[in-house]
Amino acid sequence: MSEVNNQRRAFLKTSLGAAAVAIAPGMLLFDMAHGSTEPVSGKVRWGMLIDTNQCKPGCDECVTACNTENGLSGGKLPTDSQWIRKIEIKDISTGRQSSLPMMCQHCEHPPCVDVCPTAASFKRADGIVLVDKHRCIGCRYCMMACPYKARSFVHEPLHDQNPDVPRGKGTVESCTLCVHRIDEGLQPACATSCPNKAILFGDLNDPNSPIAQKLRTVASTQVRADLKLNTGIRYQGL
Q1: pLDDT per residue over 11-21, tens digit each?
Q2: Where are the domains of the chain?
Q3: CATH 3.30.70.20 fits 28-236, yes or no
């Protein structure tokens, strides 16, 4: 009996150690699917500047690209996951209307991470907010905490998944900024697909990056800036 207990304790110790490594800041949890184990750097903060002047009403190329890249159904049912949705807003004082994509805003201070009881919701060192599907218990607290309604719950079994984008029934998911592409040195699918070049992706911390340079020269805003979440997604023209 003592040998069994010793083995059990050894197993638990090993498992807990692995879990501690898995949630260490900067580790590429999402890259386990394709083998990368290199840590990311906090010197980088990935983000987007979306020019609503160039985002055309009726255009949903970014939505389609996101669905295709991440293996989403793109259906219209409430049970379908949708990581990007196009919304139309109107300034009631001027009547001006704008069309823009809304997704996870990759907050510096993400409410979804604060409320998650299992540490499934986490923020990488480079600012990308993700969900560890192995830890998610489907409680959906993060969905209630997100002020952008950017998270969805997987209700049905999944088929023909992209092996680089792990998903699972009974878990919560949202835009990952195409982290699997970023870790390979590529741009997110939505940014590359936009026919009007309305989405500028890059390193917010690098003063010489195109996105940082543009943010210094144009007026931009954060959606719900009053919440002081310091979002990684900024909008021009709102």
Answers
A1: 334 443 443 33
A2: 28-236
A3: yes
